[in-house]
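In practice, a research group might receive sequence data for several interacting partners and want a quick structural hypothesis before committing to experiments. The following worked case mirrors that situation: the sequences arrive first, and a predicted assembly follows.
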Amino acid sequence: MSERPLLSARGLTKYYGERLGCWDVTFDLHEGEVLAVVGESGSGKSTLLGLLATELAPSAGAVHYRMRDGVVRDLSELTEAERRLLLRTDWGFVRQDAREGLRMGVSAGGNVGERLMAVGARHYGNIRAAASDWLARVEIEAGRIDDTPKSFSGGMRQRLQIARNLVTHPRLVFMDEPTSGLDVSVQARLLDLIRGLVAELGLAVIIVTHDLAVARLLSHRIMVMRRGRVIETGLTDQVLDDPREAYTQLLVSSVLAA
Amino acid sequence: MTTEQPLIALDDVSKSFTLHLRGGLELAVVSDVSLAVAAGECVVLGGPSGAGKSSILKMIYGNYRADRGRILVRDGAEVVDVASAEPRRILALRRDVMGYVSQFLRVIPRVATLDIVANAARESGIGQQEAMERARRLLSLLNVPERLWQLPPSTFSGGEQQRVNIARGLAADRPVLLLDEPTASLDAKNRAVVVDLIHEKKRAGTAILGIFHDEDVREAVADRIEDVTRFASSRAA
Amino acid sequence: MSAAMRDDLPSPGATAGKETDAYNFAYLDEQTKRMIRRAILKAIAIPGYQVPFASREMPMPYGWGTGGVQVTAAVLGPEDVLKVIDQGSDDTTNAVSIRRFFAKTAGVETTTKTRAATVIQTRHRIPEEPLRDGQILVYQVPIPEPLRFLEPRETETRKLHALADYGLMHVKLYEDIARHGHIATTYAYPVEVAGRYVMDPSPTPKFDNPKMDMCAALQLFGAGREKRIYAVPPHTRVRSLDFEDHPFRIQTFKQPCALCGAEGVYLDEVVLDDRGGRMFVCSDTDFCEERRAAGHQGMMVDPGASDPSPEGEGGSRRKARDGWGEARHAARAGKRAAPSDGLRPPPPPYGGGSSDLPSDTAAEKREVVAKDKAGETR
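A structural hypothesis for the assembly, expressed as tokens:
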């Protein structure tokens, strides 16, 4: 219980000019923990994700991350090369829109192999073997390895994104509404797959979602955001079953069956 | 020495709900709950429905938050106050120390029944092979037909799902077991099986705190009954 | 048609002195040449790095070598001897036009002999004869950015170069192998220069890639439309990218040149008739002529069987060449030599008659390979 956190956010604040993106967010994330950030659109949850993933620069506050070598680094002090290496080795990012997370004109195998090639893999046979292994793990048929994601369904594209991200065995994966826009049955299968992989690989995950059922199924902890602020945090089942804040109660009561 | 210390100890625990959506209406549930459960002991919470029995179990499990007081759960040499612990400390307690069984099955789709039960055992640190053996034994004892074992339980009847859930809840070896009416609406034969299994757990030294509506089950398993009505909140209407 | 033949240029009938009076030396003004030379110096200092430059309008359309012409204009001196080749040939329209352009605007001596030239402007070939110290090879480049088809954002490709972040280049090669079983990129095959920058060697056949490595001549690349100049200094390592289990290799040809009998050179296919008759001849016309002048003979010195005059006599060789010159052009516009490894042939120079812009055609062909990748990346 005393181990150092994998990621620590302290006082993270982001203004877009006059407009507040998110304000004074502080939390720790440990290895293997799944944190759901929930809230309506405009609540600041995507801004927070962008700050954590170093895609946005904070107006105030800092994010520290314990790198693979055990050294804790202030992410704002990474060089661009270090940042990119981190993003495609120890981190993953599964996006809502697969077209942003995949190369749509590159084959499934090439999509999965890209991270390996980016870190220096130069043996085609090995890259391909790793790609087909990962495609199998995300339940994409072996025969589709040379097809581009253009020919894939929405659910397959999301699974391909997951394979593409996990091939370098990241310790932390960001997910931005990974299941929204999918049919309910496809959602269930994807959630099931994510849940299995997260448990099996001991991944730490920060997942942004407006869907409390997704949060319930995947996450250990929840942060509820409203108007850029974190208004309630706690164990997922605690926040959903015994919500304290008026807004959280409203969110929970608005859901048919979370 | 340490065995004499209770595994669960509640110390002046109070709980109320504030319903913001109904004009901030405050619902007092319980106040100043103090009780303890020792290893090998089965304590049953008594009182009419609405008295807050289930809320007490949920507070111990960390599912509900306590407004005041301490909820002490012993994890080996360490005593953890669930009421103030970090979420990840509570998760660790759930993994290593506390099990919770309700009458409702909530599982992920697509996982086979046998694996659901076996996985529950493995989560508490039991090896794969023994976990499978336990799962088979529990499912047979609870009369879940073997032809269903490889299927996900989502299509099962209510009674079958409930029994899968009990098997799942009892598969693990954890020092503390919280039972929230697991036998509700079970038939007599299966109730008797659950009673036997609870006795088995007690003999193994598990501290059990439970809610049982059936008189016969309560009589059979309870070492003592704590009447929750005495914790009724003074402000309660 | 070609730039140098435009009506608004002075008449070729003027005296040599007048010609250079009419234009500043080598057409461009001195300020422009200085600007380009600065870019060239920077490019030489950072081998393989694409240096932006203020590309000028030239009296020819983009795609006809505006970049190469500007680089040539900036490096050319009055004592230089200029050779211009297009797909290895000295006698195609583009090559003739550019040669005449500089003959007129700079008054420099021109040649078709690789050995005699000090500056060689080329489109899509490197001469077969090894280049020597002191020579400058100027490439016409349609699309200088090797990462372009996978990453459309210029801001991002610049960052990738800055960070030597070249995994993407291998994604392209991976896709080749996945689709074709081997690296099917046969021209514009990406190279790593001096162990640092990845560079597009312009649409030369990959056959020529090894010639770039440790080349004694200075290699300059000019892309007029894209406004980039890059360079490989003499004696610099140029390595073709590949996979450990799919190493880089060049095309080989089953047969020698039908005219001069040369082996181990790059051949063009020439269609002889409409009954499937064809022959393979050196793409490098100067090299081929020199060999024949030295007495080498291929299997088919007189394909039309209409000229019985004995080989080894200059006139008839010239005549033979003239005789099938048209056919050769037509053939170049369509099919190219099919290398024995069955790889995709290099782009035709004039787009099979459908396009007037040779370099654009090359770019289009390249897009066939990389088409799916273009504009679809994140």
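Before designing any experiment, note the following. Chain B has a mean pLDDT of 90. Strands of chain B lie at 8-19, 25-37, 42-46, 68-75, 78-81, 98-101, 176-180, 207-211, 224-227.
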